Amino acid sequence: AERRSAATYSFAENYVFHPHVQLVRTIVEAGEIGRVTLIEADYLHGMAPDAVAGLIGDPAHWRGRIEPTAYCTHTLSPVLALTGAMPTEVAAFPVDAADPRTAVVMVVRLDDGGLAITRHGFLQGEPDSHWSWFSARGTEGLAESVRATGERAWSVRVRKESWTDPGGNVRDEEREPAPLFLPDGTRVEPKAEGTVRILEGLRACVEDGRPPLVPALPAVAASLVGVAGARSLRENSRPIPLPDFVVRGAYPVS
């Protein structure tokens, strides 16, 4: 319907534009780590057990009414944006078989041959970068957000082995993302950068007719991974194929 329409759809997925994700994308697009083969992404909350139970154990709360795989676009959307790929298959696993709703891991095959591993839910070790951690392994190196506290959590570690360097040196360095400023000179907090960029992109769509930052196809694809992942959980973590989005268009997984 979106393809047939003169209208456009903009998905408000701010995690695509968080500073650490943007920095990894810049490194990948520059070819620094070669062709990306494995991506890992976390969206985790290190909450106390009673607080978790108050969310996923309460049918009156939206977190208590959805499947544990459903809230997955904060990880899947950055994966698809980084690679430009579409998901073809997903297998989902509960982290704790004794408490399967608390946290899940999804393993997603991409149509470029790569693999994504995403973690969702309530696990200890909550990242300070707005609950998000991101990593890309390529054929020539690694770029991953730093597992640190405070502002350093937005930085990215780049690792390249000695065989990739003409001088035979290992390269292992930490990079900070460039700060974002509003037109009046105010610096945007890192955790708000994704939201600011999404809002600026929406305004550009409405006022200038620019294309959406996250259009319908990757939005539907990222969301359907969670739908198919829920089916995988119900079927003993069986891999579930996803629709051929490019050829036949997106449709619901039965």
Largest sheet: 9 strands, mixed
- Helix count? 7
Record the strand order, biggest sheet.
Answer: 8-7-6-5-1-4-3-2-9
Give the DSSP E fraction (strand runs of 2 or more residues). 15-25%
Give the overall silhouette.
globular
Q: Tally of extended strands? A: 9
Q: How are helices and strands ordered from N to C?
A: HEHHHEEEEEEEHHEH
* Alpha-carbon Rg, integer: 19 Å
Low-confidence stretches at least 5 residues in length (pLDDT < 50)? 248-254
Q: Can you give the mean pLDDT?
A: 94
Distance between the termini: 20 Å
Q: Determine the structural class based on helices, strands and strand pairing.
A: alpha+beta
Share of helix, binned: 25-40%
Task: Write the SSE topology.
Blueprint: H1 19-29, E1 36-44, H2 49-56, H3 62-65, H4 73-83, E2 87-94, E3 103-110, E4 115-121, E5 132-138, E6 141-145, E7 156-160, E8 171-175, H5 190-208, H6 216-234, E9 240-241, H7 245-248
Helix pairs in contact: 4-6
Q: Which structural traits does this protein have?
A:
254 residues; globular; disordered C terminus; 9-stranded mixed sheet; alpha+beta; single chain
Question: What does this protein look like?
Answer:
Helix content is 30%, strand content 22%. It is of the alpha+beta class. Strands 8-7-6-5-1-4-3-2-9 form a 9-stranded mixed β-sheet, with helices on one face. The longest helix is centred in the C-terminal third of the chain and has 19 residues, at 190-208. The radius of gyration is 19 Å and the shape is globular.
